[in-house]
Specification:
Blueprint lengths: L27 E8 L7 H17 L4 E3 L17 H17 L6 E10 L2 E10 L2 E7 L25 E4 L2 E4 L4 E6 L5 E6 L9 H7 L4 E5 L8 H16 L2 E5 L16 E5 L2 E5 L8 E8 H10 L1 H9 L1 H4 L3 E6 L23 H26 L3 E5 L4 H17 L6 E5 L7 H14 L2 E4 L3 H11 L12 H22 L1 E5 L3 H6 L13 E2 L6 H14 L4 H11 L22 H5 L2 H13 L4 H12 L21 H18 L1 H5 L28 H10 L2
Parallel strand pairs: 1-2, 2-3, 8-15, 9-10, 10-11, 16-17, 16-19, 17-18, 19-20
Antiparallel strand pairs: 1-14, 3-4, 4-5, 6-7, 8-9, 11-12, 12-13
Length: 699
């Protein structure tokens, strides 16, 4: 007997018994779309094709597979749909698939014409391990141009009952069916058919509001010039609006070409992002697979208050949906992720997309600074230039801002402020950059004032002892910032901050009278990995002359360092400190930052995704311009180690710095850490729950 009710069944722990290297331990569901070969009006042939593709989907570890509209009969039968022999054969084909499904523990959804209440309906039938879970009739029947479906079929709204008899068994019937997988939390499946998604409010919209996360469209969809692009737009838009996965299957080779042609287009989207697509106009049957992130969908829906508001506005209709539970046995062994996970989530691999993002980020920074200067009436900027990445990007933004305001770049009062560990390399780069950009260049040696401060504190270094503790470092950082603010007072200027998003996340900044503070910070929501590519983009764009480009490249090639502790041998030619040796590679920490703050994933899932992205340097594409020396791999112990560093620093010891951060524009969808924007958190939280989860669940 089918259990039909709205009652909730307690979710099982989806991670129990599953290895770390299985997608099913981390909230993914592998789904499939099949496009079988077609013989018009040959249901038994279609049954064989469908079963064969379902077997392939199961062998690949999928838990859901869908097939085209009227796939068991063929779509292009026209008035043959009124022939009893074809309808009987279609039911027989359906029975064969139901029988075969006993050995295939995945949800199979097929298209078939079915009679009930004296009418014929175009249906999607959900099958699981030897039983039919439910039948969804098509809601909207096209009856224009080449389509005449109302000649053969009745629409869902014409049905009187909520069940249909198939082989003597009463089965749920309607557009209000959601199939709920027990054993894989978050997998709730709804089906609609072809034209349904071409309407202003598709049935799947209501299903998504009622909880469905995987929306399936069984389509036939003949092909005309340009139609494939429109399909992509429809599926992308529907998956994005519904914050869901969207599976789409169109009829493939073999449909009748009396007046139409078919391209066998299959698509899988997740929240607007294309995960998989079939080849079009293929000669043979096809099967595409994708790993849908159910936890990502749940996170996004939970955060979107407008999604919840829409549920409230349609609650009476949504309460009518019927949830049909089924026991899903997910694969228990290791199953590698087949989804693309970019190493640099803030930096797209595609060159055209990356250039477009860099253009936007750069101009967001510039326009933010333009507004701040106009609002304050201030015409001068004061900035510290270290010869490092962050101050370089801020100085570039400042120069372009002055250009846009019609002010001379000499209004930028730039200061390099060498301390006890400043290298000749970074110092010379700072001077060369200031000269190349035409700003007012200055140098203030902070060593005398820093030494006086250390003497006043009674610090051992003031007495000649080589003690390089946190006080020694922060005295220098504080002296620099103190000078900048007083210079701004003196010149009626605004102190431009340079610290980036990655440093804010890790707390890698000196609080208060230090590099954490400024009047306005254009880099506040730009991560370190993106800043590197912004500078590369500026070099290629030709915005500045070739001489500036040479200096910018030299800065890109320099070791990232705070330059606060001298080299043990007294050398000053190159930076003595390595930031990444202390707090971890920025490539990994930016990855961790993105997935922890954007999606709130468990540390073990972040580590799983990071391993997939970073464990093999040969897998996947690298952004153009990234030096070969930086195209490296990280093993799981390294990933776990640096993730642990991130969790402790981010959740336990750094929030107070972010709670008092200065204004700055939000740049990317990865968010910002401003307490007035994307991130509000207590300054006194513990990191234990995150660290415990990491230690317990990452081998």
């Amino acid at each position: 007997m089918l259990q039909l009710s709205h009652q909730r069944v307690k979710d099982k722990d989806h991670s129990v018994g599953k290895p770390f290297f299985s997608i099913y331990r981390h909230g993914f569901a592998r789904v499939a779309v099949g496009v079988p070969a077609v013989r018009v009006a040959d249901p038994l042939f279609h049954a064989q094709q469908t079963v064969a593709l379902a077997q392939r989907a199961h062998a690949a570890g999928a838990v859901v597979v869908i097939f085209p509209e009227l796939g068991l009969s063929a779509y292009s039968n026209e008035d043959l749909f009124h022939q009893d022999a074809l309808l009987d054969a279609s039911r027989e084909a359906l029975a064969q698939i139901v029988e075969a499904s006993l050995a295939l523990p995945l949800l199979i959804i097929v298209g078939v014409p079915l009679r009930t209440e004296g009418r014929l309906f175009n249906c999607a039938v959900a099958i699981h391990t030897g039983r039919i879970l439910g039948v969804t009739p098509k809601s909207f029947l096209p009856n224009y141009r080449e389509f005449y479906e109302k000649r053969q079929f009745a629409a869902a709204r014409d049905a009187l009952g909520t069940t249909i008899d198939i082989g003597g068994v009463s089965v749920p019937f309607g557009t209000d069916l959601i199939y709920v997988a027990q054993g894989l939390p978050g997998l709730l499946v709804h089906t609609e058919i072809c034209e349904d998604v071409w309407t202003p409010i598709p049935p799947s919209t209501y299903a998504a509001l009622a909880g469905a996360t995987v929306l399936c469209n069984l389509s036939a969809s003949n092909i005309t010039i340009g139609k494939a692009d429109y399909r992509r737009a429809l599926c992308a838009g529907q998956s994005g609006r519904c914050v869901a996965a969207y599976l789409y299957s169109a009829a493939g080779p073999g449909e009748s070409t009396t007046d139409l042609a078919w391209d066998g287009h299959a698509l899988i989207y997740e929240n607007g992002e294309l995960l998989a697509e079939s080849a079009r106009f293929a000669d043979d049957e096809q099967l595409i697979l994708a790993d849908v992130d159910l936890e990502r969908l749940a996170q996004d829906r939970m955060r979107l208050g407008s999604f919840t508001d829409t549920v409230h506005d349609h609650r009476e209709r949504l309460r009518q949906f019927r949830q049909i539970p089924f026991d899903l046995a997910v694969p228990t062994g290791e199953l590698a992720l087949i989804r693309t996970v970019e190493r640099f989530p803030f930096v797209p691999n595609d060159p055209a997309t990356r250039d477009a993002r860099c253009y936007e980020a750069y101009n967001i920074q510039v326009h933010g600074l333009i507004k701040r200067l106009k609002a304050t009436g201030i015409k001068h900027l004061v900035i510290g230039v270290s010869g490092g990445l962050d101050s370089t990007q801020a100085l570039i933004v400042a120069a372009r801002t002055m250009d846009r305001l019609g002010l001379p770049r000499s209004n930028i009062l730039a200061y390099t402020m060498p301390g006890f560990a400043t290298s000749e390399h970074t110092r010379s780069n700072a001077h060369a950059l200031m000269e190349a950009l035409g700003v007012t260049a200055n140098e203030i040696d902070i060593r005398p004032s820093a030494l006086q401060m250390l003497h006043d504190l009674g610090h051992p270094y003031a007495a000649g002892e080589p003690v390089y503790d946190i006080t020694f470092e922060n005295v220098q950082a504080g002296e620099r910032t103190s000078h900048l603010f007083r210079l701004a007072n003196f010149h009626n200027g605004l102190v431009l901050g340079t610290g980036d998003l990655s440093e804010l996340a890790l707390g890698w900044a000196t609080y208060g009278v230090g590099d954490q503070m400024s009047h306005y910070n254009v880099n506040a929501s730009v991560p370190k990995t993106l800043i590197q590519h912004l500078i590369r983009w500026v070099i290629r764009s030709g915005d500045f002359d070739p001489a500036a480009g040479v200096i910018l490249q030299s800065i890109l090639d320099t070791e990232i360092s705070p330059e606060l502790v001298p080299a043990s041998d007294g050398s000053t030619s190159e930076p003595a400190q390595s930031t990444e040796a202390k707090i971890g590679p920025y490539a990994l920490q930016d990855f961790n930052l993105y997935y922890l703050t954007r999606y709130g994933f468990r540390p073990s899932k972040v580590a799983f995704l990071c391993y997939h992205a970073w464990s093999d340097a040969r897998r996947g594409a690298w952004p153009d311009g990234l030096p070969t020396a930086q195209q490296i791999a990280y093993d799981l112990p390294s990933i776990k180690q640096w993730l642990g560093v991130f969790l402790y620093r981010f959740f336990q010891i750094s929030q107070f710095k972010r709670s008092a951060m200065p204004n700055g524009p939000k740049v990317g969808s990865g968010g910002s850490l401003s307490p007035r924007g994307d991130w509000r958190a207590p300054s006194d939280s513990e990191s234990r729950v995150w660290l415990d989860e990491l230690r317990a669940n990452v081998p």
